[in-house]
Write a structure and sequence with these properties.
This protein has 195 residues and is α/β, with parallel strands linked by helices. It has helices spanning 36-43, 86-102, 121-132, 149-163, 182-194, and strands spanning 6-12, 25-30, 62-67, 71-75, 106-114, 136-142, 170-173. The protein has one domain (10-194): Rossmann fold, CATH 3.40.50. It has 5 helices and 7 strands, in the order E-E-H-E-E-H-E-H-E-H-E-H. Strand 5, helix 3 (121-132) and strand 6 (136-142) form a beta-alpha-beta unit. Bound molecules: guanosine-5'-diphosphate. Residues 22-195 form the EngB-type G domain. Keywords: Cell cycle, Cell division, GTP-binding, Magnesium, Metal-binding, Nucleotide-binding, Septation. This is Probable GTP-binding protein EngB. Belongs to the TRAFAC class TrmE-Era-EngA-EngB-Septin-like GTPase superfamily. EngB GTPase family.
C-alpha cells in the first residue's frame, strides 16, 4: 500500500461525530500499551499522527484517520488498563458496542496483542466480539523485536490457541521499533479488503 496522504479527521466522543461519507473502514483495537499508536504511526509512515501513550487508559475517543482519501483507519479506545474505574469500563463497552454494532462500512478489525505474552481474558473477549459481529480479523503480534524469530513461531501458536483463532485468520508480527512486518500487515489488510 502506498500512503499518499493521511490525516486525522475527527477524534469522536460519540456516534454523531463519526464521518458520514461511509468510506470503507479498518479498525484497530487492543489492550492499552500494546503498541497501537506506534503501529498506526508506523503503518502511515508518520512519526506523531497517533499519540503514543502518556496517559494510558484515558483515551475514550474513536479517532478516524483518512488515508489516500479512500478509506479510514480507525483507532478504537484501548482496554485492560488496571487503574480504570467500573464506570470508565462500562463507558468503554458502550462506545465499542455502538461502533461495532452500527458501523455498516466497517470492513475488518485488526486486533493487536503483545507477542511476548499469552493473550489476556480481555483479548479473548475482544476476539470473540469481533467474530460475533462477523468482521474479518487480522491479529497483529506487536513488539516482535523483543523476541527471537524462532520464539515468534512458538508465540504465534500460543496466541492462536488462546484466542481459538479461525485457521483462516492471519497473524502478523510487527515491530514499530525496527519497522518490521509493515508490508506484510498492509498485504493482509488489502487481501481482506478485496476478498
Ligand atoms: P498504545 O497504548 O497501544 O497506543 O501503545 P503505544 O504505541 O503508546 O506504545 C506503548 C509502549 O510500547 C511505548 O513505550 C512504546 O515505545 C512501546 N512500543 C510500541 N511499539 C513497540 C515496538 O515495536 N517495539 C518495542 N520494543 N517497543 C514498542
Amino acid at each position: 500500500m502506498k500512503i499518499k496522504t493521511s490525516e486525522i479527521v475527527i477524534s469522536a466522543v460519540g456516534p454523531k461525530q463519526y464521518p458520514e461519507d461511509l468510506l470503507p473502514e479498518i479498525a484497530m483495537v487492543g489492550r492499552s500499551n500494546v503498541g497501537k499508536s506506534s503501529t498506526i504511526n508506523t503503518l502511515l509512515n508518520r512519526r506523531k499522527l497517533a499519540r503514543v501513550s502518556q496517559n494510558p487508559g484515558k483515551t475514550r475517543t474513536i479517532n478516524f484517520y483518512i488515508i489516500n482519501k479512500e478509506f479510514y483507519l480507525v483507532d478504537l479506545p484501548g482496554y485492560g488498563y488496571a487503574k480504570v474505574s467500573k464506570t470508565e469500563r462500562a463507558s468503554w463497552g458502550k462506545i465499542m458496542e455502538t461502533y461495532l454494532s452500527t458501523r455498516t462500512n466497517l470492513q475488518e478489525v485488526v486486533l493487536l496483542v503483545d507477542i511476548r505474552h499469552e493473550p489476556t481474558e480481555d483479548d479473548k473477549l475482544m476476539y470473540d466480539w469481533i467474530k460475533h459481529y462477523g468482521y474479518g480479523t487480522i491479529v497483529v503480534a506487536t513488539k516482535s523485536d523483543k523476541i527471537s524469530r524462532s520464539q515468534q513461531q512458538k508465540q504465534f501458536k500460543i496466541i492462536r490457541e488462546a484466542l481459538q483463532m479461525n485457521p483462516e485468520d492471519k497473524i502478523v508480527a510487527i515491530s514499530s521499533l525496527k519497522k518490521e512486518g509493515i508490508d506484510k500487515l498492509w498485504g493482509a489488510i488489502e487481501d481482506l479488503f478485496t476478498a
